[in-house]
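Example: GNAT family N-acetyltransferase.
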Amino acid sequence: MKKIREATKEDMINIYMMGFDVWGDDMPVEKYITMCQDTIKYKKGKWYVLEATDTKELLSSLIVYKLNPSEDLIVKGIGSIATPANSRKNGYAFLLVKETINKLEQEENCNNFFLYSDIGTDFYKRLGFIVLPNESQKYKDSICMYYSKENGIDSISFDIPNYF
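Written out as structure tokens, the predicted fold is:
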């Protein structure tokens, strides 16, 4: 069995290390962990993990940010999606993103989600995300994508968020 839950303070080094091989830029592990611990954006969001219930192993992680562009809309940004290198290609990140969205839809009535993809679009398209039109893209190397069960991309009447 697997479950999603909010990350604890004790989880954070394991979470940071899930992306070390991709985001570590050849720096020493200690320096990378300190950089992550000091990153303001990592302190602004809420971290979630997918955990194996029998072993308590962390299988995947992500961070969710509040992006509310107006008082009547609930908008979230999903970022820093990572899985330990030896556990990739098992569907853990897919399950975590899917279940986190379901949780936020049910518990917070959130129906608008953005993310920036650095891995191409196919993975997120399988989850129902759509690529924003070219004129809405803000960055060359990261593609902004949107997900909503209720609202089409044409109904967005607020500014597309910057990379979060």
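The longest strand covers residues 58-66.
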